[in-house]
Design brief:
single chain; Double Stranded RNA Binding Domain; 10 strands; rod-shaped
Length: about 200
């Protein structure tokens, strides 16, 4: 563990009552490669490449090149690059809250169906509606009295109308409607479990 990493970790522990935020550990595990470059006699840059290929950059600069110390400059540039990760984490957290707390978002529709049949709520991370999700409704019966028009009265001996299993959607306006899958939803791979 580098001195810089130890310093950043201590800073996080001190600012979080001795507990390491999960997101910090997760992003540190996602770091694939770290490069240091001296761009000018006064400026050092740290490029952190995550395992996803996304890059963040931190810069350290001194007023006079005579004051440049490689270890200190690289350490400051690294810390500044890690701070860029926190900005990304904040964005991701806000997006998860906006999308209804989607736990994972890398499933295909087949996996989403399987999870729905286990009682999970699922949604696509690309859906715009706050709090929208779909869920599985198993086959059952409902009392005919639930239909005030009495359309089904007397058709079934117990006045319990059977229905087949289906998928329902909880909409943005907090109502529930039957849901049909579109082609784009069917082949998407950004499905996730909603907590």
């Amino acid at each position: 563990m580098s001195k810089t990493f130890q310093m950043i970790l201590k800073k996080e522990l001190d600012g979080n009552n001795g507990k390491i935020p999960f997101s910090f550990v997760q992003h540190m595990a996602d770091i694939g490669e770290t490069k240091f470059v001296q761009l000018t006699p006064n400026m050092r840059v740290c490029v952190i490449t995550l395992t996803t290929g996304h890059e963040v950059i931190g810069v350290a600069q001194v007023l006079d090149a005579k004051n440049d110390v490689e270890e200190i400059g690289n350490s400051v540039a690294y810390e500044n690059a890690v701070n860029e990760l926190w900005k990304l984490e904040g964005y991701l957290l806000k997006q998860k809250i906006y999308n209804g707390n989607i736990k994972t978002s890398n499933m295909n529709f087949g996996q989403a169906i399987s999870d729905m049949k286990k009682g999970k709520k699922v949604a696509r991370s690309g859906w715009n509606g706050k709090g929208m999700f779909i869920y599985y409704v198993p086959a059952n019966k409902y009392p005919m009295s639930g239909n005030t028009l009495e359309t089904m009265k007397g058709i079934y001996p117990d006045d319990l109308v059977p229905y087949q299993e289906y998928t329902a959607m909880k909409t943005v306006d907090n109502t529930v409607v039957p849901w049909l899958c579109s082609q784009s939803d069917m082949y998407a791979e950004d499905w996730g479990i909603v907590e």
